[in-house]
Design goal:
This protein has 97 residues and is mainly alpha-helical. Helices cover 78% and strands 0% of the residues.
Amino acid sequence: MTRLDFTAENSSERYRQSREEERMSALRPVTSIPELFAHALAIEREAGERYLEFGARMRDHDNPVVAELFFELARYELDHTRRLGKQAAGMALPEID
């Protein structure tokens, strides 16, 4: 490896590390159980919605086997959302970004 290659490799690695550090510094720790539930509910809802979209797209592309797989995954995620909602009942859930 030439010195130029080594320098470029190091530069690329330093850039990757700085981006990772930047991403990690933007993450804020969860500080309460209600906040944890709020994030969990948002994640499960988003996953369920995406799986429904993927299922519809696969159905539209005449791929019923894969469509059904995505619809099944959506049912799991939506069930998780329902169960989390029951567990969080009565909690004052914060607004999250």
